[in-house]
Structure of Histidine--tRNA ligase:
Amino acid sequence: MSKLQPARGTRDIYGDEARRMTAVVETFRRVASTYGFEELSTPIFEFTDVFRRPLGEASDVVSKEMYTFEDRGGEEITLRPEFTAGVCRAFISNGMQQNLPCRLMSNGPAFRYERPQKGRYRQFHQINAELLGPENPEADVEQIAMAWRLLRELGLGDKVILHLNTLGDVESRVAYREALVAYLEAHKDKLSEDSVRRLETNPLRILDSKDDGDKVIVADAPLLSEHLNEASRAFFESVKAGLEAVGVPYEHDERLVRGLDYYTHTAFEFVTTELGAQGTVLAGGRYDGLIEKLGGPAVAGVGWAGGIERLAMLSELDLVDVRPVMIMPMGEAATLKAFALAEDMREAGLTVLADRSGNLKKRLTRASKANAKFAIILGDNELEAGNVMVKELDSGEQWEVPFGGLVASITA
Ligand code: ATP
Ligand code: MG
């Protein structure tokens, strides 16, 4: 393989894909700001503990996906595999608990050592929202409603479905874990090797196994919903009632567990059938113990992350094609005047490209290729008269205007 290829699982992003991804981020910022969210930009690398502690040693991300290295100073560093842990670290570092609730939005690259395929990369990009402070289920509802609004604005309302589950509080989860392990132990001989290992480390993850043999066993496993205590049950009922009140359709998916250890109560994923195995476009949940796990105060949180590549691939946002104005000075004196005229037009918000070489015919051909709306021709004769020649490329119509009237004549 040529050395000039990007590293495996990384890509150069440009053209329509870049425009679509930018549109996703801009839509996210606009929607999230209507819910009071403010920008937070955290470093793309942190001390490894920032991720290892909250995500859990047994999670897929920590056990096999992190980009971890020792830097020149001997510090153990990890490229962020996700945003939440870093956002919570920033919350603690900056004493943000003085000012609750915190509504924080972020976007940028994340890094996971994965097997690359369509919609799955080693460097990918996320939009991320965290609401820190509120312990009540209404906060979960608002976060999901915000995600749903974003997805609809991206034209995905008919393409995704919300899968919703509760993981209960710690007490419920401990009770369930016991029942689940007891059941799975009885079928240990038929479980995949991975799942036998998870039995010790992270048994809930077995519910999410892609192995066909595991799936058969999991189908009859006890359900988490049967082990919820009263408080957890009430919390989940409130989330569901809230979603119904805002009009967010959902499916209760009893098998939904999130890959990271830090979730409690609400867990959700917006899934599409259009991207094959990479069907989850946006996912999140509540993580009440995370900030404490990082050594901070007992502050609750609920949030989500969306994969920008996957959202951009699915999204049917119309990309607005900006048609440029092409300015064509003929000769040296005209070139200098063209600088000033181009700036006048940009001041008015127009996109202006200059073409300073070749004969007029060639330049007009290039202008059509660039999908220009107008050609502005400026030769010695025009210069002397203080005029430019404007040619509207669609109609072929052309007219002369004095320098001072140019902007008005093409923006009218
Ligand atoms: P998956 O099940 O697809 O591996 P995940 O549960 O690991 O997803 P999260 O940690 O919830 O993903 O990240 C949130 C979103 O980020 C995902 O829903 C997905 O859209 C996107 N995402 C996660 N990993 C990748 C990746 N390697 N490449 C591209 N997008 C990704
Ligand atoms: Mg993953």
Summary: The chain is about 40% helix and 20% strand. The first strand starts at residue 38 and ends at 39. Residues 259 surround magnesium ion (ligand 2) (CB under 6 Å). Residues 342 and 350 are 9 Å apart (CA to CA).
